[in-house]
Design goal:
The protein folds into two domains: 3-126 and 252-320, Bordetella uptake gene, domain 1 (D-Maltodextrin-Binding Protein, domain 2, 3-Layer(aba) Sandwich); 127-225, D-Maltodextrin-Binding Protein, domain 2 (3-Layer(aba) Sandwich). Helix content is 47%, strand content 19%. It has helices at 3-27, 44-60, 75-82, 96-105, 113-116, 141-150, 165-177, 189-198, 208-217, 264-278, 281-288, 299-320, and strands spanning 33-37, 64-68, 90-95, 117-132, 156-159, 182-185, 203-207, 221-225, 251-259, 293-294. Helix 1 packs parallel to helix 10 (264-278) and helix 2 (44-60) crosses helix 10 (264-278). It is globular and about 75 Å long.
């Protein structure tokens, strides 16, 4: 093929391709969508995905099929999505664990978050809450810090496992306060919460909804939330930043992703439909039962957020030599 022919083909591709993508987005979707969830039925990610799936189906007029692929901290689901055809019909309800943490604590993964997955929109954020056993003589974050400094290594904090957000929240707290809390990993948030209630451990950065009933019953004492803003689920609780830890912000989050080859026009349409449903009062009310606060950021905003989170967790993980169990 001579040079002029090659140039002609290049001009044809660059001219026709944008129109083809536009036509595809106008026709999209014309069949059912598959929403992959990195958790078993009944979990937080599954709960949010099913709400979004039902509302998205109503909005676009096509079924949204939930595909639960639990295991390996969400990396099975993320890998499956990364390798799918980029036509907009395969989506992932990604979470902070599988998107920005697991790629850095697992030795080998078959996908690269920043290369193989394209962010659509941040669906929701779920703050953790700093809770302590009632036997701990502290009624505020300031008093807890003073106690931890007076008795280094005497207080234990539990988590749902090495590299989990509940673990990283504790490590960030230690770094920010210059305290020495001993990490005790458990196999899940449930066992860790039970250990805290029994007094086996003294401190935990726990999912807010899972521990609020125990706080209200007096079996646990809540001191602050870990998010940058107060939580609607417990507006009376200050943030750690308000409690003196300026810049402290760590929340579990959930967002929609598609394979990186998905056309931007299709991503934009998925974003608009999802952002619209996240503003409905019904969704807001149902999310609040899980302590989740809907967001609906643009693809560009979500992309920037993911990259910032990746950098933030890189530092915490490297500084503390964290590896997956």
């Amino acid at each position: 093929m001579d040079l002029l022919s090659k140039i002609g083909r290049l001009i044809l591709v660059t001219t026709v391709l944008p129109f083809a993508c536009m036509a595809m987005s106008q026709d999209f979707p014309n069949k059912s969508l598959r929403l992959i969830v990195p958790a078993a039925p009944g979990g937080g990610a599954d709960f949010l995905a099913r709400i979004v799936g039902i509302k998205l189906s109503e909005s676009v007029g096509q079924p949204v099929v939930i595909d639960n692929r639990a295991g390996a901290s969400g990396t099975i689901a993320a890998d499956l999505t990364a390798k799918a055809i980029g036509d907009g019909y395969t989506l992932l309800m990604g979470q902070s664990t599988s998107i920005v943490i697991a790629p850095q604590v697992y030795q080998k993964l078959n996908y690269d978050t920043l290369r193989d997955l394209k962010p659509v929109t941040l669906v929701a954020e779920v703050p953790n809450v700093l809770v302590i056993h009632p036997s701990v003589p502290a009624n505020s974050v300031k008093e807890l810090i003073a106690l931890a400094k007076a008795k280094p290594g005497m207080l234990n904090f539990g988590s749902s496992g090495n590299g989990a957000p509940t673990h990283l929240a504790g490590e960030m707290f230690k770094t920010a306060t210059g305290t020495n809390l001993v990490h005790v990993p458990y196999k899940g948030a449930g066992p860790a919460s039970n250990a805290l209630i029994s007094g086996e451990i003294q401190v935990m950065f726990a999912p807010i909804v899972s521990v609020l009933p125990h706080v209200k019953s007096g079996r646990l004492r809540a001191l602050a939330v870990t998010s940058v803003a107060r939580s609607a689920a417990a507006p009376e609780l200050p943030t750690l930043a308000e409690s003196g830890l300026i810049g402290y912000d760590i929340s579990s989050w959930f967002g929609l992703f598609v394979p990186s080859s998905t056309p931007d026009a299709v991503v934009e349409k998925l974003y608009r439909e999802t952002a619209r449903l996240l503003k409905s009062q019904d969704v807001i009310d149902r999310f609040s039962k899980e302590g989740a606060e809907p967001v609906g950021s643009t693809p560009a905003q979500f992309n920037n957020y993911v990259r910032q989170e990746y950098v933030k967790y890189t530092k915490v993980i490297k500084d503390n030599g964290i590896k997956a169990d």
